[in-house]
Write a structure and sequence with these properties.
Strand order of the largest sheet: 3-2-1-4
Number of strands: 4
Number of domains: 2
Helix content: 25-40%
Largest sheet: 4 strands, mixed
Radius of gyration: 25 Å
Order of helices and strands: HHEEHEHEH
Distance between the termini: 63 Å
Amino acid sequence: MKLCRYIVALSLVIILLAPGSVLAARARKSPPSPVTHGDVYQNKPIAPGGTVWYCVSSRSDILCLLGDRGDQEVRPRQAVDARLPTLVDSILNSPEELAGSRIRIPLHSEPFDFQLVGQLAEAVMCGSNKRCGVIFAETLPELRALVRSFEILRQASWPVPPADNIALAGGAGQ
């Protein structure tokens, strides 16, 4: 009985790997795909008067700092589930309370697709608020450069925070 099973299994392997089989031909034609990193997050334009968060990725989390609290008059109040920590309500509805505080979004694995990591930062920090934006970068030097360019272009008449003073996590991502 065991010998019969062995012969059947061996026959199937020979048939599948035979030079003329369809599976063998398909395997020979397609080279192994290289492991690549995901796309880079594309920062979006931020509405004038909108809340702005500066976020950078590290190996184990995303660190965010309030860049501009935005106009309270135009910020829609977002409903927050009472089961969530009060920090969530502060992030979405009262970001001015968090000025100078680092917000940490934990990651459960080392990031490789930074487009998704940036989307996560945007979802956590802005929720459904269309007048909120995240300036996200993979490293702190990239974030400094982005903050300079985005903030200057966004509103030339607004005071631009000095990008050199952005210290999210003692050189996170460097």
